[in-house]
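Rotation project, supervised by the postdoc (A.L.). Task for the rotation student: set up a whole-complex structure prediction and record inputs and outputs verbatim in this book. Inputs entered:
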Amino acid sequence: MNNLIKEIIEIKRQKNALILAHNYQNSAIQDIADFTGDSLELAQKATGIDSQIIVVCGVRFMAETVKILNPNKKVLLPAFNAGCELANMANVEAIVEMKKKNPGAYVVSYVNTSAQVKAVSDVCCTSANAGTIVKNVPTETIIFLPDKNLGYFVEKTNPGKKLILWNGYCPVHNMFTIEELTKIKQTYPDAEILVHPECNPEIQDNADFILSTSGMLKRARISRAKTFIIGTEEGLLYRLKKENPDKEFFSLGACKICFDMKKTAPELLRDCLNNETNEIVLPHDIMGKARNAVDAMFRYG
Amino acid sequence: MYTEKLLDHFKNPRNMGRIENPDGIGKVGNPVCGDVMWIYIKVKDNKIEDIKFETFGCGAAIATSSVITELAKGKTIEEAEKITNEDVIDVLEGLPPIKKHCSLLAEQGLRAAIEDYRKKQDSQK
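Outputs recorded:
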């Protein structure tokens, strides 16, 4: 263990802080963290731990979600300028406009959205529960945002519902091509293909399983397959390999990296924790409304 | 999916925290979903005088931990040992089938804390 990592762990201990890391973070950060997971998982899980300071190694919307679920705790984001291109594609004004055009339609928004967008939504969803939420909300017409690929996946499994999709996508997941998939299938014909629902429809239609990152981790644990092709951000491969040393994991395509996720350098983490800077502060009313959308997810999920 | 009762325990967990120098600690985990739970107990005159938990888990796991601490507080060791996951589910007025394992985790966590307490007692004899 190098000195910097030792230092971080020591400061963390002194402050009784909790360090959370998203599954797409650099491996060094994943190793320092108390827990790794996907965004909503981390936000929920933080509520059961007795720490007043929570450091979120991830991007802004994740830290905001942690704050929404833990309003009385101090939530810090080391890489303060780390955003999410997908989350940035949704904006409040356009949603309000859409709501006017479709009175009565429920607004279901993905967890990858800002607190402001959540605040004008009726229900939140994750890639793991989006299908169930859409099925259970009381309206037939649903405004679904911001990921059109996740929307495709949800629509396919809910034929009775009419989804009004937003033209948003995650640039990393949207980048996988059918050529890459065909090629890697030839190289590893026995491999199980696990892809994220943020991948484009062509990729989804040719995969064995369409899963969230936590779903992929579970599948890899219980599957009898020895080789897996993974269609999501490359950071997840580190954890998959760590948890399943007897199995092999390959990325569906080269260089599928989310650069915002890699902004959390250990030095940034140390300084942020040490000085308690980069705190997430949200307006009270926004937090309350966003919390309602998250609670609705627990009811409909 | 979740009852109002469950949401309340998730949003306002009871007895969440740590006990300094506890008489028993139970740490249990669920390998499939990666949840981890710690239950700390303080025992006086064979009764659970204080109990606290920390759970790194989903909303249901946090709520079931919260409930089991409420059920066990003030009970004798023998009474506490008899608390089952069904008792926890009753308090929550139901739990979705896919979340039943969370209530089992709570039951196991409490039993592990009691077991640890007994071991410590035996070693002092």
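Student's summary: Chain A has three domains: 3-83+261-281, 86-169+287-300, 173-251.
Supervisor addendum: Chain A touches chain B at residues 34-35, 37, 41, 44-45, 47-50, 132, 214, 217-218, 221-222, 295, 298-301 (CB under 8 Å).
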